[in-house]
Structure to design on (130 residues):
């Protein structure tokens, strides 16, 4: 089996609920982080085999948050993208899945992480959180 390395990590700033980052969806935040990761590591988007992202609140975010992140980061559409929901462990689980894929020879380069925007999570009672 191949050795697996975490080459780098990138994150967006942490904002407060309903604060200055509230206008960004989880996919938009993930795109920013994925783009920055590729730039910092000098990895061309075409080198990425798969994108794995954990996201808990996906309602209202469109389909497959990981696919949106991949497209926004310029990763070719032929690459696979998977969104995982395991609640708080989702992002870390995607890193473990990425390592397994590389060890098994199914991928060489995987972008993995988590993306969330609690400010954009739907809530049943309108204006009850403001």
């Amino acid at each position: 089996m191949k050795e697996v390395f975490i080459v780098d990590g990138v994150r967006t700033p942490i904002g407060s609920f309903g604060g200055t980052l509230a206008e960004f969806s989880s996919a938009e935040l993930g795109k920013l982080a994925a783009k920055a990761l590729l730039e910092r590591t000098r990895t061309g988007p075409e080198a990425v085999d798969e994108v794995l992202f954990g996201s808990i609140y996906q309602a209202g975010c469109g389909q497959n948050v990981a696919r949106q992140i991949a497209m926004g980061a310029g990763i070719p559409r032929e690459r696979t993208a998977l969104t995982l929901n395991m609640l708080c462990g989702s992002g870390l689980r995607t890193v473990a899945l990425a390592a397994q894929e590389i060890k098994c020879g199914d991928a060489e380069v995987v972008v993995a992480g988590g993306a969330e925007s609690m400010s954009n999570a739907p809530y049943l009672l309108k204006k009850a959180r403001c």
The chain has one domain: 26-119. DSSP finds three helices and three strands in the chain. Residues 26-119 form a domain with the Peroxisomal Thiolase; Chain A, domain 1 fold (CATH 3.40.47.10).
